[in-house]
Specification:
This protein is of the alpha+beta class. The chain is built from 3 helices and 14 strands. The chain has helices at residues 2-105, 107-119, 128-133; strands at 140-145, 150-155, 167-172, 181-185, 195-196, 201-206, 210-211, 216-218, 223-232, 238-245, 252-259, 264-273, 278-285, 298-306. Strands 5, 7, 8, 10, 11 and 13 form a 6-stranded antiparallel β-sheet that branches. A 5-stranded antiparallel β-sheet has the order 6-4-14-9-12, with no helix packed on it. The longest helix has 104 residues, at 2-105. The termini are far apart.
Length: 311
Amino acid sequence: MARCSATQLGVLVLVLSTSYVVASLTVDMQLEQLRNNYVKLEQVLATKDSRLEFLEQKVQQHKQGNLEAQITQLVNEVNQMKIQVRRTAELELKVQRQEYLINAVHGESRSHNNVSLRQGTTQMPKSCADLKNNGHTSNGMFLIMGVKMVETVFCDFSKPISDQSFQKWIGFADVKSSPVYFHAQRIGNYGAANTGIPFNQLRLNVGGALNPVTGVFLAPKAGRYFFAYSGLSWDSNAKVQLQMKSATVGWFKIGEAHCTPFNTFALQSILDLKQGDEIRIIHIHGVIHDRDGNNFSNFVGLLLEEDIFGC
């Protein structure tokens, strides 16, 4: 019984030993298989990386090829445009040469025509169409005859007269046949009631339109005028008026100013006058103070806009 047990124990030990060896071999084989699989995986990844890099190079080459093609196309278009510009310049040169030959052949007739169109034109142009008929061909800004004043227009002679952009109105030109303006003052008090104020000191009287003895301004030409008067009362209340007289209406009031003793008064106005209309400052009552030479009284006027035409 004891021997059997020993025999059985030996068999058992042998079986366990064999199982351990087999298990050890199985684990080694699995590790080897994993190593082989990892190597194969690295090879596959390397292959795919190479393929991906190849595809990227192809894409870059394709893009570069398209860009070079576009650049080539643009260069060709620019060259074509240069050729067209050169041809246009050559055509313009030929046209200029032909015009020169025509002018040389018909020089005398052309000269007479220019004299009649430009120098011999007596009627003032009223539009770009008139300027074109007078021989102007270069685009630009021109002065034309308006209803009352000189006007500025831009003429585009490259377009037909019926085109709205053929003539563009710019504005009125500040043109005066001659300047008119004055500045008058007083020395000494003035107290004559209901009389025009005389001015015995003139700072300016360009155009000679103001009579300083009577204090009356006579409009030498039609247009818009600006007038202003300011003064200082003496020791009583004072009143003055700005008055106007036309060819059909006698003296009438434009404005009035009054003040208490030793205070200032002022009048201003812009008037549309005809040639020959008159303006004055009339003293109604009180005393105007200019005794101490401080020039408190000032009467100014100037021509703002002149009616060049239609008067």
